[in-house]
Each structure stands twice: as structure tokens, then as C-alpha cells.
Design a protein that fits this description.
This protein is an all-alpha fold. The chain has 14 helices and no strands. It is globular.
């Protein structure tokens, strides 16, 4: 529950600092999303598969390491793990910036993801905020991610237009160093580590979380959502260049209005879902928007169809991105929330990796039509999985209790 009581000055400083830190890191990861398919095309070794791997490589290392690094922060402290993660992220950015072939870019992107500090940042946020302010703090952190995603799609093409793809990676390294300065200068040092039931993965609850049918469906949903995002962005930049006729440094002129309009379109869906009890219908509608967006972008005969496809995609994506974590947190008891959300985030990053890798393979084997068919098939399976009444879990007596 989000209380009406104000945060203390220290809590406000903590939340603003950690939200900025988290945003800087995610900005660095997201900025290449609208760029790699175009800017890496002429790099030695580049092809659909290797570009897809470069796009999604961060997801694999992030998925493998975020839970272990969260556990490590329980032993060594939050701030040392966060600073170490940011240094690894900076190293990966420098490796990618100095790369002279696509394989080194893939290595750099994997190193960026290896600085997996998401779970540790959330744990530190919990350490430094009171129980009644924790939900509010987590909500602010979640909103910052959405803003960062939008900013990355706009800022990436602008920075690349001035400094090229290498310049974007140097910018990523700079963001990591600024993040370290924020940790050292702005974030308070927490008291000796103590565990919170609603933060962090708890080993005894992992098996029960994985065995719950509702949570398995939600984990599949976030996997499919980020798979589609990564795969589709292997062709979106090319569509904006070839069909819409936009130079690559002007693609932000489509992303920005599409994102803003998608928020306007998403608001009635959120109201219908949260206040009027139509979550199931709105959830299926959002998946349907993704299904409609895929052919609109890939097979667009003219620029307006590409723009419409981007609007449909971002509307569905933003609704699901905001709704899925909320559904997980609402149906899990406090002692299981950290475990459920940790595994949920792991599935999200695995989806990003699989979308880049499998999307690149589908593009090489079947061209844009093959990629569209693969993404549409996944979205259709997703829709059918949630179509039965009750498939979208409703808040109830929480599952995954001790």
C-alpha cells in the first residue's frame, strides 16, 4: 500500500539518487536498441545473427548474474557490489567502443550486462526506506525505467548522429562513472545488512515459485514481451529508413511522438483494467495490439503504416510492461515477493537475449517475413495461453507463502 505520509529527507535523497543511478545504467543498455541494426551493418563480421547477438547479449549475462550478485551483496554489502557492477558495465562499454568487429561488440555488450546490479539496487532501496514507504519507492523506481526507455530511443539516434555507434558506447561508459559518483556522494550507507521479506530471492521459495501455474504464465508473458521487442528492433530501424525515408539520425522524430501518443492511448486501458475490473480484457487487447503491430511494421507499404505500427506496438508494450510486475506483486505474499520478482526479471532478460539471438537467426533464414512469422506465432501462443477466464491472475489470498 502506498501511504499518504511523506518520505523523510534521507528517504527522498535515497530514492532520487538510486532512481537516477538505475536510469543511467538502463539508458546505456537501451540506447543501442534503435541503432545496432543500422550502424553495425558495415562492421566486419556483421550479419543478422551476429547483430541480433550484439543486441541481446546483455540479457544473457544479466539473467545469469543478477540473482547471484544480489546474494553476494548480502555478504559483502550493497555499495561495493553496485560499484563493482558499474565498473564492469563501464569496462564493457569501453570494449564495445574500441571494437573493430562485431564479435568484440558482442563481448562488450555481454560485459555490460554482467554488471547486473538491478536486484542489489532494489535491496539497497529497501535497506534505506521505511516499510511504509517501500512500495512508493519501488513505484518511483519502476516509473524511472519507463521514462528511461523513452529517453533512450530518442537520445540514442541523436548521440549516434553526432559521434557514431562508438560514441554511444563512450557515452555509456561516462554514465557508469557518473553512477559511481552518485553512489559514493549521494547514497547513504545502510546499516548492517538485514533481510527484507519482500526484497531478494529466497532459495527455499524458488521451487514453489516456479511450480505456481499463474506465475509461470506471467514469467512466459514477460519473456515473450521482451523477445518481441528485441526481435522487432532488428527490422524497425530499416523500415524507418527504407519505407519512411528517414535518415538514421532522425528516427527519434518517430519514436518520441509514438511513445507519447502510446501513453495517451494506454491510460484508458489502465483505468479499465485497474478501476473497472477489466484486466483480463485489456491484457488480451494489449497482446492483440502487438500482434497487429508486427505485420504493420514489417510489411508496411507506406510511411503512415509504419507510424501506426509503432503506435500500436508501444501502446501494447507500455501497458504490459507496467501491468506484469504489478500482477506478480499483487498475487504473491510478502515473503515470496522478492523471489517471484527476481525470477520474473530473470525471464525478462532471457527474453531479451533470446529475441536478439533467435530474431537474428529468423531474419537470416526467412528474411523479414520469417522474423514477422516467428514473432506473430509467439504472440499468438501468448494470447491463447491467457485467453481462458481466470488465466490473468487476480489479487487474492496471496500465493507462495512460507
Amino acid at each position: 500500500m502506498i501511504t499518504e505520509n511523506p518520505m523523510t529527507p534521507q528517504e527522498r535523497r535515497t530514492v532520487s539518487s538510486l532512481a537516477t543511478l538505475y536510469s543511467f545504467r538502463m539508458l546505456g543498455l537501451f540506447m543501442v536498441l534503435p541503432l545496432l541494426a543500422l550502424y553495425a551493418a558495415d562492421v566486419p563480421g556483421a550479419g543478422p545473427v551476429t547483430i541480433g547477438l550484439a543486441l541481446g547479449a546483455y540479457g544473457l549475462s544479466q539473467a545469469l548474474l543478477q540473482i547471484p550478485l544480489g546474494w553476494l551483496s548480502d555478504q559483502l554489502g550493497r555499495k561495493p557490489v553496485i560499484i563493482g557492477g558499474l565498473l564492469v558495465f563501464a569496462l564493457g562499454s569501453v570494449v564495445a567502443a574500441l571494437a573493430d568487429n562485431i564479435y568484440v561488440i558482442i563481448l562488450g555488450r555481454a560485459l555490460q550486462g554482467a554488471g547486473a546490479i538491478a536486484s542489489t539496487v532494489m535491496a539497497l532501496l529497501a535497506d534505506l526506506t521505511g516499510h511504509e514507504q517501500r512500495t512508493k519507492a519501488m513505484a518511483i523506481l519502476g516509473m524511472s525505467i519507463g521514462v528511461t526507455f523513452a529517453l533512450a530511443l530518442v537520445l540514442g539516434p541523436l548521440v549516434a548522429g553526432v559521434a557514431g555507434l562508438h560514441g554511444v558506447f563512450w557515452f555509456n561508459a561516462l554514465l557508469a562513472l557518473v553512477g559511481i559518483a552518485i553512489v559514493l556522494g549521494r547514497v547513504p550507507t545502510p546499516p548492517p545488512a538485514h533481510r527484507h521479506r519482500d526484497v531478494g530471492v529466497r532459495s527455499p521459495l524458488v521451487r514453489r515459485t516456479l511450480a505456481d501455474p499463474g506465475l509461470r504464465r506471467l514469467n512466459f508473458a514477460i519473456f515473450a514481451l521482451h523477445f518481441t521487442l528485441m526481435a522487432l528492433f532488428l527490422v524497425v530501424p530499416g523500415a524507418l529508413r527504407d519505407i519512411a525515408g528517414l535518415p538514421r539520425d532522425s528516427h527519434w522524430m518517430v519514436y518520441l511522438p509514438a511513445l507519447l501518443l502510446s501513453i495517451v492511448c494506454m491510460v484508458p486501458m489502465m483505468i479499465a483494467a485497474e478501476r473497472r475490473g477489466h484486466m483480463h480484457g485489456m491484457f488480451l487487447l494489449a497482446i492483440g495490439l502487438l500482434l497487429a503491430a508486427i505485420p504493420a511494421v514489417v510489411f508496411a507499404p507506406a510511411a503512415p503504416v509504419v507510424y501506426l505500427g509503432m503506435l500500436l506496438f508501444f501502446t501494447g508494450f507500455n501497458f504490459l510492461e507496467a501491468t506484469l510486475p504489478s500482477l506478480v506483486s499483487k498475487v504473491v505474499a510478502p515473503e515470496g515477493k522478492g523471489t517471484a520478482l527476481g525470477l520474473f526479471s530473470t525471464c525478462q532478460f532471457l527474453g531479451a537475449f533470446a529475441g536478439g539471438a533467435a530474431g537474428g537467426w529468423m531474419l537470416r533464414v526467412g528474411g523479414p517475413a520469417g522474423l514477422a512469422a516467428g514473432c506473430a506465432a509467439l504472440a499468438l501462443v501468448w494470447w491463447l495461453l491467457f485467453a481462458p477466464s481466470g488465466a490473468v491472475p487476480a489479487p487474492s489470498a496471496a500465493v507462495i507463502t512460507e
